[in-house]
Amino acid sequence: MVDAEPMVYVVDDDQSVREGVAGLIRSAGLRTRTFASGEEFLATPRPCVPSCLVLDVNLPGLSGLDLQQELAKTPPPVPIIFLTGHGDIPMTVRAVKAGAANFLTKPVDDEALLNSIRHCIASRWGDDFRSDGTAESMVGESPAFQEILRAVRVVAPTDAAVLIQGETGTGKELVARAIHDLSSRRTRPFVMVNCAAIPATLLESELFGHEKGSFTGAIAQKIGRFEMAHQGTLFLDEIGEIPLELQPKLLRALQEQEFERLGGARTTRVDVRIVAATNRDLRQMVDEGKYRGDLYYRLHVFPLTVPPLRERREDIPLLTRYFTQRYAKKMNRAIDEIPPGTIEALMKHNWPGNIRELQHLVERSVILSPGRVLQIAVPDAAPGTSPAMRVPFVRDENPDREKILEALRLSGGIVGGAEGAAARLGLRRTTLQSRMKKLGIARQYG
Length: 446
Description:
This protein has 446 residues and is an alpha/beta fold. Helix content is 39%, strand content 13%. It has three domains: 1-129, Rossmann fold (3-Layer(aba) Sandwich), CATH 3.40.50.2300; 130-307, P-loop containing nucleotide triphosphate hydrolases (Rossmann fold, 3-Layer(aba) Sandwich); 311-438, Helicase, Ruva Protein, domain 3 (Orthogonal Bundle). Helix 1 links the parallel strand 1 and strand 2 (31-35). It is globular and about 80 Å long. Mean pLDDT is 81; it is low at 126-134 and 381-397.
């Protein structure tokens, strides 16, 4: 039986890692409890079944894999995220094949760990844990966004390769995770590779692994991301950065689901669903001879284009409130209002950095806001915007009658929702309704 709230247990013999991970989990608003060994975890009474277990592979005594096998003997199954050092890869593969939800390499990326934890909790708790009505952290109501969601729901249950295209910062990784979460592979690993972040000379080893002694410095066998993603999803981000000389081997792995490790002769077969993403025009790269046409067409089975934020401006109010609530909760700040006019100014900005730019702006503003009202310095607005929209907005906690009536007029009388008067004024729906009542504005609006 699942407890009333999610509980994440952390088992790691390194105190600094244990405390760091626990602090991160608490900052996300989740309950957690830590243990220094597998033996301590098994011996300690636990009042609730863990929603997720963050487990070090290389524990002294009872190893992480041994603990996984012990837990598997008693239902219900516990989603496990393994933390692994570079030398622990073979053991991690065994763990993944035995049903681990995911693995992460130390030092752990905070966002990657929190995303994995959220996925485990969501798979256990269902839609009750999700922060919105879409897939995980995808937020939006615009027609362009809804079209992407419809496409995700269509392709997710299949095993078709998906190519996600769009500018940097538009949320391509979230789309990839949504495809995985809605697929039959959702309980298996979601493995991500940023092809642009790995030097070309190391990318083959990263994808396909290598054998001991295959090159200078190869002091141990290493398995690649394809094997780690067995029975799950492999997300190849920045797929346009794959070197031309590596593309034939990648094409074979995609088509035949088999490959050889670097320096090895034994063929390894896998069952992997491929989702790729790029901000480049692969079709143009093919025409210019910079990308293999056969690889492009293999990836281009089901293309999805994520629109830039400037083409889904209707979602800016919703995204702004979402990020404000998220960071206010994370930083334990009591921010519940956005100054009037700020949303309108944000909607006029061109957002060259897309959602990521908006997210970082809101995060910075939450840090700097001293009170309950978000004080946000709006970036330079689009060309033609009045100079008044280019300066920081000051708080206005009491929009007068004329402002409220004007907002209601512009919203067609709608109070709530992304396009409603409350969003235009930077207020919560209930706050605006309260002020309407005080000002004697008839409640004839929906």
